[in-house]
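Continuing the series of single-chain predictions for the mutant panel. This is the parent chain; the variants come on the following pages.
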Amino acid sequence: MMKSGIIKLVLPAFLLLAQIGHAQTPAPEKSDSNWFVYGLAAISLLIVIYIIVQVSENLMAIEAKRLGADKSGANFSLFPQMRELFDTKRPAYLSGQPLFSLRRGFDIKLEGEAPSQINAKVKSATYALMPANFRGIFPIPKMEVEVGSIVKAGDPLFHDKSQPEIKYAAPVSGEIVAINRGEKRAIKEVVILADMDMKYREFKAPDPGKCTREELVAFLLDSGVWPMIRQRPFDVTPAPEDVPRDIFISTFDTAPLAPDLNFVVEGRGEAFQKGLDVLGKLTVGKVYLGLDARGDNPPSAVFTQAAGVEKYWFRGKHPAGNVGIQIHHIKPINTGDKVWVMGVQEVITLGTLFTEGRFDTTRVVAVTGAELETPQYVKTHLGANLSDLLKGNLKGKHVRIISGDVLTGEHKAESAFLNYWDDQVTVIEEGDYFELFGWLIPGSLRPTLSRTYPNFLVPGAKFRADSNTHGEKRAFVVTGQYEQVLPMDLYPQHLMKAILAGNFEKMEGLGILELSEEDIALCEFACTSKQPLQHILRQGLDMMSEQS
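Parent structure:
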């Protein structure tokens, strides 16, 4: 019907042009007139074919989206895409599984990567739980302990006054030695001096296959595992009554010097699978695993052989390992949707709660950076003291210690503690120096997307980074840099300007609900204007959250 309509529109135009051309051509030049008519016919035919193809392509895309088949990564087109013609060979271990090859992004290759070996000698004496790590919690939560209290791992330390059923539990057993306060007397840290022999609060976990969802949620709330779940949009702790559309887990991290999760999960496969089984009972949708297809060898069998989940493979540069990027390509967040995300080690903690009946916050942490004598992995617990993890391993004192990676981590004092979800510590040189005309004067290579420096000539080179921004905050102009490194169908720079203008409709229309700070961090690194994009995004998310 649509095709006949197009032909009815194009044929009269063609006949009219042909008639005009024939009428205006002198009789002796009939051969030229014929060529003119044939040319018009050919052009009209090409136009008709082009319109039919475009309409068919759009209809096929709409139908694939309606059926959900577009999430398989297949090409629903009459013609092969450019990426299919020039794509590198798919790894053999994929065997026809859905693969997303992300073209945009950038890998920041730094010195100081930790070898895959745990230094068992490194121990932490103190640990802390920090209310500020949890967005949306009241500044002064209700304390359930005081200085001098003795706790076991899993005992509640505090709860949110607005949601008292959500318990925030002790990561280790020991004595409460400090409750440190910050501005306006907000509780900053609850510090525990850990026991030499860990003691655990005993739990009798329900059978996920037999209990109701309400019983399962009540158990997770009481055990202290619930705050390990993060809800998007807004990246907050979910309310107990919330039911997620789907749950997403990324099994690899592409951030600079990030820990190798294939190494981290070794020997912990049973707990990881049990955690997946429990998560499957908490959602009305599915549990999705994002798997790493960047290497010639497959990831850990713990990930590839996981049961009860849907697996999607990703390859590309950072931020391909971000769970937000994977959600965008698998099943984007729409208005009204709520999805949950968890990290691999949090899933293991959840699984251990059901396999062993204890709240075990054991963490394998990558201690990385060029300013360390020996980058290494250490086995510790959630909220470990940074000075204990770095003791005797710093090359100097003029360094910046970061809980997390260099793009999204938090600058910490040496006496501070590892943030709740961080499984990485990065130490780089402090960049508190002034550089006059630095981009004009030849110097050593540095991490950058700009071709002012010939980094592109040495793609495998690793760099010794510092914290200097190499420039001051400038006019916020449209450069197109963000779109080059963000593998999402969004316009991040327009979104940032909409946030600054407080335009709620544009913020939502431009996709703010799909983003978290880690997704926009690489844009901030690439930004010529030196804008604090992560801070701007959080302002926008908080504004949207208040209106929801």
